[in-house]
Amino acid sequence: MIKIDNLSFKYGKKEVLNDISMKLEAGKIYGLLGENGVGKTTLLKIISGLQKPWKGSCSVFGEDPFKRTPSFLSRIFYLPEELEFIQNDYSIRYFAKINAPFYPKFDKEKFETILKEFEVEGDKKLNKLSYGQVKKAALSFAIATNAELLLLDEPSNGLDIPSKTLFRRIIVQYVSDNTCTLISTHQVRDLENLIDPIIILDNKAVLINASLEKISEKLYFGLYSSVPANALYSEPTPGGYLCVMQNEEMGESKVNIEALFNATMHHKTLIRELLA
Amino acid sequence: MNNNIFQFSRVGKLFRRTFQQNSKTFLNNALVLAGLPVLFLLIARLASDEGPSLLFRANLFTFLIVFLFIFSPFIYYYSYNHSKKGLSEVMLPASVLEKFIVQQMVCMIFAPLMILVFYGGSDALMTLLFPMYHEGYVITHFFNNILSTEGLLLTFLSMQAVFFANLFFIRRKILKTIASFLVINLLIGIVVLIVFKVMESCGYFNELAGHVDIRVKDRGLFEFYAGDHPLVTFSMILEIFMEIILPILFIIGSYRIMKTNRY
Predict the structure, then answer these.
(1) DSSP assignment letter at B218
(2) Are residues B131 and B172 in the same domain?
(3) For the segment A147-158, what is each residue's pLDDT rounded down to a tens digit?
(4) Residues A34 and A115 in one domain
(5) ipTM for the predicted complex
(6) Which residues in chain A are closer than 8 Å to B98, comparing Cβ atoms?
(7) Which of A47, A196, B94, B113 is 20 to 30 A from A276 in CA distance terms?
(8) Same domain? A196 vs A237
């Protein structure tokens, strides 16, 4: 579905992405993780056709996204972190009324259901809603478009704790099975139990693009009373230390995404090679 | 035609969306425009025994129509190239050509039509209802005495320049547009001055005794004659540049920006 080959991108002289390559498939919810400023948003913008690669190529549904053809645009939905594009003097229902005709697979019933589940006031003006409410309203519309590619930039920002839980459930429940969802975030805990595979961007490059199964096969996440000598990463937790180690026939463990992220930041080359 | 380039159904959807999205602005504009002739009549009656003169109403009508026509891109599409606000437009599943055509049509046809219908209509109604205080019809006066091909072409040029500036500039658009207009006018003035000086130094004005009958307005835009004075030829070339070439350049430039703009 998405094929990125040796892609590089610069803002002026500042290099943001350097020679990255990856493939993304339909029917998966990818988590795009990375520290602030590593190029997550830029990558989403390139995939959605808002930016053009400086070098290399990005192909989505076999076409160049930057051409922004109507058929391409009707198959994707990009939800940016900042929602100024939607904060208008009308309600989300009105927004849906005027924009839905452009999305052939838009499901009004699904839209209303998600709005209800999110407890969004569908008839209240968007510029009068709180940031979290606007985010939920925008998410409802995005999911209801049934786009084949859903690009969500920091979707959990601004959501309260119950809404974050609800967000995860709604994504799992309502996003179509054949949709490729790419969620960019630096709040990895918000997306626990939702994202698989995981992509970690750092220093302008892709460190990891692997499924949880593969990660669990190569790395072991365990709770220890003291830090083992072979631990790649450890952090104190109530009751001991959460450690990340190479999985040397230790069996499967539940991947802790935050610990994976921190371990990767400490041992970039090793983990990159392990999960290559 | 390729489905991804142009489709009437998508253009229709874009028009509908534009009107739905701007319905409040349109309604407010319509109310203000329709209210102006009533207001002028009231003020004039309160201040004197007479109603507002046809000349005053027609001048105001012309000013409004020219102003709204020229600045309509700012009114309806100010945020199009904004990195955040513009996403609702740029990511809308329609081709750039379709979006461009709709924007041009809204600015070129809809904006002036609003004034014709609401201001002109209200003015006509006042004349019908109070003929003793409200003399004549501004629309008739405008079409018979004010509207000219020359004026229309210059207004069209200005509108295309604003359309281009609205896409070219991202911040402080109005200020930068006005500044650019001044700079461009200054540059054209300098070019004209240089050409005059060159002609003078070449002796083209020697036999004219301080008088040259140009009257190029009486001619067609491309009506060149072999015996024309170089000044006449230059004036016509300048006119073609201003009224034909420059608007075309602005149209191509605007489309190009819409096609290649990054967000």
Answers:
(1) G
(2) no
(3) 999 999 999 999
(4) yes
(5) 0.91
(6) 70
(7) A47
(8) no
